[in-house]
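From the thread on structure requests for the teaching lab: each student submitted one protein with a one-line request. Submission from student K.M.:

"Model Glycoside hydrolase family 92 protein from Pedobacter riviphilus, tokens only."
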Amino acid sequence: MQFKKTSSILFLTASLFSLNAAAQQNTKLTQYVDPLIGSAKHGHVFVGANVPFGAVQLGPNNIFEGWDWCSGYNYASNTITGFAHTHLSGTGIGDLGDISIMPATGKLLLEKGKTAEDQNGYLSKFSHQNEIAKAGYYSVLLDKYQIKAELTATERVGFHQYTFKKDAENPHIIIDLIEGIGWDAPVSASFKQLDATTIVGHRNSKGWANDQRLYFVIKLSQPIKSIALYDSTVVKSGATLSGKKLKAAVNFNTINHDKLQIKVALSPVSIENAILNLKTELPGWDFAAAVKNSDAKWEKELAKLKIEASNTTKNIFYTALYHTMVAPSLFNDVNKDYLGTDKKVYKKANFNNLTTFSLWDTYRAANPLYTILHQDKVNDVVNTMLAIYKQQGKLPVWHLMGSETNTMVGYHAVPVIVDAYLKGYRGFDVNLAYEAIKQSAMQKTDGIEYIQELKFIPADKINESVGKALEYAIDDYCIAQMAKGLNKTADYAYFSKRSKLYRLYFDPSIQFMRGKLANGNWRSPFDPFSSKHREDDYVEGNAWQYTWLVPQDVEGLIDLFGGDKPFTNKLDSLFTLPLDLGTNGSPDISGLIGNYAQGNEPNHHIPYLYTYAGQPWKTADLIRKIDKDFYSSKPDGLCGNEDVGQMSAWYIFSAMGFYPVNPANGAYVFGTPLVNDAIISLPGNKKFSIRVVDNSAENKYIQKIVLNGKPYTKSYILHNTITAGGNIQIYMGNKPSASWGVKQEDRPVSTNSSR
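Reply posted by the TA:
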């Protein structure tokens, strides 16, 4: 009996230990990340394996079927043409897709398949049932070849593991340097076999980004039986080949233990640096350990923001947080060498050079999010922008792979730099930064020349005049704030005037922002619902949407309407009148509530404008509706382009209960929290804790707030309050509060400052 009792105790102890270990395992935040969220419809997210802000995004490419395949992958597809090492996430233009590798068996096929049923090309169907997508890991079964593909990555190395059927016939891989996504096409390429297991080369291409240069080393886990190099479809003799449209067929006798592993390291600088990157980041062949390391890197970043919420909300939240860290991506080597915009190599830089700056999108919330969660990255972002300024003569607009695409409008590197400066970041040359932001505003292009004279941009001379002018005014406000901080009094006065020029486009008779002709007359006929994609007075939007694009001076916009009541009456109409874009509307105008478009970034601040007019409960209603209608844990869980993290950054901020309406005044406007608790981990072992009391679907209205033990009546919170560490309790109820956030002195204003 004693033996049985002792055994029972030991069994119980072991069981409790196992349960505790399982509980610890279940607390991992990476389990909530589903990279397939946003991969359907217009989300355009990257699906595959990467690490936070890594240079490599290794993932599958489908047959390209148009706009919704900009990332190379769409959930609607059932085909894979190869696994490529660079991808965009959530953009509206297809590019990259460098160095595609496709494992295969049987007859060698050199042409990529054109349809799912094409038996004369290399591709394979697949089923989502046999697909696994996690943070840092991707796996899929290639039906045609019965090959299990597994992918993981370090910052600069993609790691493939292919499991073949036993005794597979003619196992081989196709390395395709022609293949690219969307608009991408090769300009020059090369292969060179260094030894029995090593191939090196380069791929230069032209696409959305005009001049892309990439070097690589491919390391195989077993010797090559034979290699055939092709220029188009013509086989070339020898182990070295240079040309434009190159492919390689690499053959093996058998696959050792049925597993073929491939490591591919990239460099923007040289083959030698690619080899160095490989040796430094991934010298071994332990695939499981590499997956574990990738998972750990994601876990470390995700753990900066721990929330309590339902599992579904956690799926949406942590996948959104994951999406904000796909880019900006590293564009340098382990020794800090990088390729400049001027195509010169810069050795051993004192910062991490980055690429993939979708600034028209990310300045609104994604970049402000970095100033809280990724404080170690902010100086790198600014230093990269200043390097670009010195190399190309202006700050980046939409920068990709060391090339300027000049996509979208505004000079939105400005708010990113100014926000960093005002929040106390000083790991960059402040004087150079001010020179660069001022130069942005003094260009003679895209109507900026009219702004310099404190005039309106004539709609009959400059396309998208209203959209451009409103974006310029935001940037000019930011320049004024940095000028003020540097005691540049004249510049402060000048750029403050420019920041108010939005008023010139407001027609008080109809209460819309609209185009004005050179003769001073309003452009007619005028339809506030109409939108012609990139061909009217707005930018991917209509007058209903652009009338509210004054986040730098909301109180001034309220004055134009004649006060809170007419302002909120008009704002109510935005969310209730049905949209009618006409025949040429932008596909980016999606996620609709009336004329409001959550799927397009210039709209993102609008729900929070009610709080400026003393009606925060209407903001709460809208945030909850947007959350319910437009964010889900399904593949179509995004209502528009992810836009390199902005769509998800909106959710992260909003879920915590606040949002940076003004991108550079250091204030976050309260809405309604979607989580029950949140803990932000900050440098120096500081934490900022958010506790939401009585939160529920019905209890969506803030009743009162307690900050660090004291009543807090403001309907906004300052950046430095969060980053100093502390705690906040937000008390919720099922009816709007009659007092919280209503008084004029408690409302947010543009002059709020984090300093």
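TA comment: The radius of gyration is 27 Å. DSSP finds 19 helices and 38 strands in the chain.
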